[in-house]
Task: inverse folding
């Protein structure tokens, strides 16, 4: 994700709500506007200001790989992240390979989650003019499957291999461009199909429909039920996602959703907003409580928000435990449990 060098001061308590000055001044980093992880952070900044909890300066458009490390090192107070990044940090792998496993594990141990977010659900889609018939028709095709590196392209390659039995460079040609060029790449015809995480509705699909009708395909049920796919659904930062096709609104005329049995199935990328373990119990609890208390308001802020995993702390759907080393902050656990939610012991610090 290409950084957008902008620092947006979102939280101004006295101006926005007339409340007393907030007790804390915090910094936060998140992704570019338009997605679920940005929305959760922007909402947190707004309600933290209104409730007099904190003034949060949010830097958006950030490279979340760096943001996670900044929180771990105490340079930033809050960051949005897919959960694959704390896992890679703990292992000293991927973008954190220069740190090594020992330093990576030390830093990852400093991280705690406040609440989960579904960043997107992987699906196949293409313009109807391409004449594709689904996952079984991808051999030899050119597929746009994400940015040049990172969790998205790794997951897309795995989903294509699991659902279609094809490896990039052998069974198909992969195209990678940065997120800022995504819509242009979809619409310019350079790829026959797209495998990317989507939301319901999805902003990239909505924009791309201006260039023609599209079809979106769910993961085939037999592939979904297979042992390899079920195993991958439990990988760090991943979770199973199902939704009745009648609820899987893609927002526009001109787009068709194809499933075998009326259920959309996809691999979800799970993340959340994280803080340092050194954040005070009371502050972490207050921030999480503010999030919980305003979930209905958060879900009303964008068409996709009701399916973005806000308020879903089920251990499987929220991507916690198992190989994911990330735990909730003790203050966050208290806020969730006092609100009547169940936090599994494996997700507690």
Result:
């Amino acid at each position: 994700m290409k950084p957008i060098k902008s620092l947006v001061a979102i939280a101004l308590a006295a101006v926005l709500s007339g409340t007393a000055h907030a007790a804390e001044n915090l910094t936060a980093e998140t992704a570019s506007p338009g997605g679920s992880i940005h929305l959760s952070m922007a909402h947190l900044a707004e309600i933290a200001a209104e409730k007099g909890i904190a003034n949060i300066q949010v830097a958006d458009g950030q490279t979340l790989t760096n943001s996670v490390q900044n929180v771990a090192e105490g340079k930033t107070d809050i960051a949005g992240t897919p959960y694959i990044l704390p896992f890679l940090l703990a292992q000293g792998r991927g973008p954190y390979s220069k740190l090594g496993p020992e330093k990576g594990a030390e830093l990852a141990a400093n991280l705690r989650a406040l609440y989960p977010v579904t960043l997107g659900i992987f699906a196949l889609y293409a313009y109807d003019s391409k004449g594709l018939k689904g996952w079984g028709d991808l051999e030899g095709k050119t597929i746009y499957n994400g940015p040049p590196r990172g969790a998205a392209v790794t997951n897309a390659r795995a989903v294509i291999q699991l659902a279609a039995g094809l490896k990039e460079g052998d069974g198909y040609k992969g195209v990678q461009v940065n997120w800022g060029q995504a819509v242009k790449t979809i619409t310019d015809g350079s790829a026959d199909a797209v495998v990317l995480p989507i939301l319901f509705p999805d902003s990239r699909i909505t924009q791309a429909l201006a260039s023609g009708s599209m079809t979106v395909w769910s993961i085939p049920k037999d592939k979904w039920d297979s042992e390899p796919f079920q195993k991958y659904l439990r990988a760090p930062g991943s979770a199973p996602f199902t939704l009745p096709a009648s609820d899987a609104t893609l927002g526009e005329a001109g787009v068709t959703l194809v499933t075998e049995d009326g259920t959309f199935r996809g691999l979800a990328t799970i993340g959340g907003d994280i803080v340092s373990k050194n954040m005070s119990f009371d502050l972490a609890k207050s921030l999480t409580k503010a999030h919980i208390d305003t979930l209905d308001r958060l879900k009303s802020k964008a068409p996709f928000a009701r399916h973005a995993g806000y308020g879903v702390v089920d251990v499987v759907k929220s991507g916690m435990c198992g190989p994911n080393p990330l735990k909730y902050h003790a203050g966050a656990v208290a806020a969730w449990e006092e609100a009547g939610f169940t936090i599994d012991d494996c997700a507690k610090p």
The chain has 13 helices and 13 strands.
